[in-house]
Design brief:
Layout: E1 4-7, E2 10-13, E3 18-24, E4 33-39, E5 46-51, E6 58-60, E7 68-73, E8 78-83, E9 92-99, E10 116-117, E11 121-126
Parallel strand pairs: 2-11
Antiparallel strand pairs: 1-3, 3-8, 4-5, 4-9, 5-6, 7-8, 9-10, 9-11
Length: 127
Amino acid sequence: QVQLVESGGGLVQAGDSLSLSCAASGRTFSSYHMAWFRQAPGKEREFVAAIRRSGSDTYYADSVKGRFTISRDNAKNTVYLQMNSLKPEDTAVYYCASTSNSMTSFAWYFHSNYNYWGQGTQVTVSS
């Protein structure tokens, strides 16, 4: 079993940057693909970014491409989300997720393909 704990959320202004971290328990972190999702009030949980277990490939939602960067440090059992040029529409609870499943090109985008979830961290961007 994997436990995920997010940190780094907060209140920022539009145009600011914020970095989220997700620390994973266990000694098999490098066996899991990792992802970030987000959920705004009244909306469904949506895919933000994902990274393969090796770190060789990354995937992004169109809404964050060019502004957000996902990365991982397998030695530290941690995945990161660097968020630049934040917009008010980025306001949401951000969740870290992991999966040991084999992932095809489109599988990354569906939260049902992920086995473990963190508790979430709030990101609020004011205009």
